[in-house]
Design brief:
Length: 225
Amino acid sequence: MKGLIGRKVGMTQVFDDEGNRVPVTVVEVEKNVVIQKKSAHGKDGYSALKLGFGKVKKLEKEGKEPKWRLNKPRVGVFQQAGIEEPRRHVREIRVPEEALDDYEVGQELGAELFDLGDWVDVTGTSKGRGFSGVMKRHNFAGFPATHGTHEYFRHGGSIGMSADPARVLAGMKMPGQYGNETVTIQNLQIAGTMEEDNAVLVKGGIPGSKGGIVIIRSAIKKMGV
């Protein structure tokens, strides 16, 4: 089990050995740093790596000492770990207890962590689409455009009952907030790595818009492959 924090750059295409065109998403994974190792035998009770990602600029004012553009508690986490340059985004990646010995606090990780053909799960925040109707949110078919339909083309139809039980059942598919939620797409494949640019190519699309923060982890359902 291994993982990295990254930033979605966008989509492009590559060609495999047989000449087939493969759509891929480019994920920048530059300068992931190990902040902490958590052990199942320690106070945390589980094994994981705490990783940091994303550059932080310094606030420079004349006559004052430059300061990181982060609050003091967040900067203190990195200083306590002996890391000079803090990172903007911090996430945890669960790893087996026996894999903790392969990492050291302060170690920087990059695209070389993954190999061509690795199976991964990608977690990100989906694009927010605001308050949406049932056709967009739940893929409803809508109503016929003719045969007497009047001002009812994109509605959801009946939602309740008559005398019994005389209420709307919980979980009814209705209009509402759509998107802007944590989404995980499982069993994607690494189509290549760009170590000189510290980027990973993931086959297919992943959640979120360009510039969104994502987590790439080893695919749980493919661990035995």
